[in-house]
Amino acid sequence: MHSRNFLSRFENWLLFNGGFHTAHHERPNLHWSDLKSFHLDTVGPNLHPSANEHSFFIYLFRHYLFPRVDGEAVRAYIRWYSIVGTLFVVAYWMGSRAWLVNSAVYNFSFSWEQRIPVYPQAAWLYLSIFPFFAMPLLFLKAEEIRMLGIHLSVAVTTAGLAFLIFPAPVSWPIQKLESNATTLVGIIHSMDVRSNSLPSLHVVFSTSIVLFIIRRQRYLKLPMILWLGLMYSSVVLVHQHHVMDVIAGIALSILLFWGLKPAMISGVQLQLEAVGQ
User: Fold this and answer.
1) Which of 47, 23, 184 is nearest to 118 (CA)?
2) CA–centroid distance for 81 within its chain
3) How many angstroms separate the most distant Cα atoms in the chain?
4) 5 pairs with which residues across the strands?
5) Are 210 and 223 spatial neighbours (Cβ–Cβ below 8 Å)?
């Protein structure tokens, strides 16, 4: 074998059968429209199956852009994100029932925050966290994903207790705005329980993921920190959280990142994996 072949019908239609690379090398003067039949009849039967790929673009992504993604990492990612997702739902449910435990309402906002106008375009930055959730799968090993999963599980549980004991509704009124991004802001507000504000789980998730990634991939430190700064701004600019909510989310993430010891993590891992099974 001296060439790799890509057999996608669409890609070969687009590239004049350029995917039949071995056939082209065997018969350089063969017209492009005859490369497919020559590959199927003569070249293909003599090639090892590994020489044929379906799509050039899938091959490119799999082998060059995301070479670290493996089966073990995917399994760890699915398991721990399922556990964290379940705890997230429970935490929000706890926040919505806070009045059963504590009838008091706390205000952790600063008076000057009322002068901050809502900026609907910041909703795009706010929602950028959802594709960002895939980053650990691309840059962390399986064991690191497990560590991140434990970290997030403890963080979400802590936040849920805070929602239950210290209900702190957002003090900004929901405004009617004329903007192309207004719909996004409306969706954000409708999905959230407004009393679940301190700490901001949006900040906890984004900060924790960045901390784990830049510890391993230091070349990503600058762009990740820049993105975090924009993310922190967005949760305030869409009037979803106050400044203290952001500070509390950052503090919780950093304290757990540096405070969870390996022995503690092993114990939490065994208990959470037993629940996940």
Assistant:
1) 184
2) 10
3) 83
4) 52
5) no
pLDDT, one tens digit per residue, over 24-53 is 998 989 998 999 999 999 988 888 888 888
Closest by CA position to 165, among listed 212, 77, 104: 104
Sign of CA dihedral 46, 63, 61, 130: positive
Question: Position of tokens 């020559």?
Answer: 38
Give alpha helix (H) positions in 109-261.
123-127, 129-132, 135-139, 142-165, 182-191, 201-216, 221-237, 243-259
Question: What's the pLDDT band for 180 if we cut at 50, 70, 90?
Answer: very low
Count other C-beta atoms under 10 Å from residue 110's C-beta. 13
Tell me how crowded residue 223 is: count the other CB atoms within 10 A of its CB. Answer: 11
Which pair of structure tokens corresponds to residue 136?
Answer: 């650990």
Domain boundaries, the chain: 5-64, 68-276
Q: Which residue type does 175 have?
A: Q
Residue 189 in tokens: 């507000």
Of 199, 211, 226, 203, nearest to 258 (Cα)? 211
Place of tokens 């999905």: 191
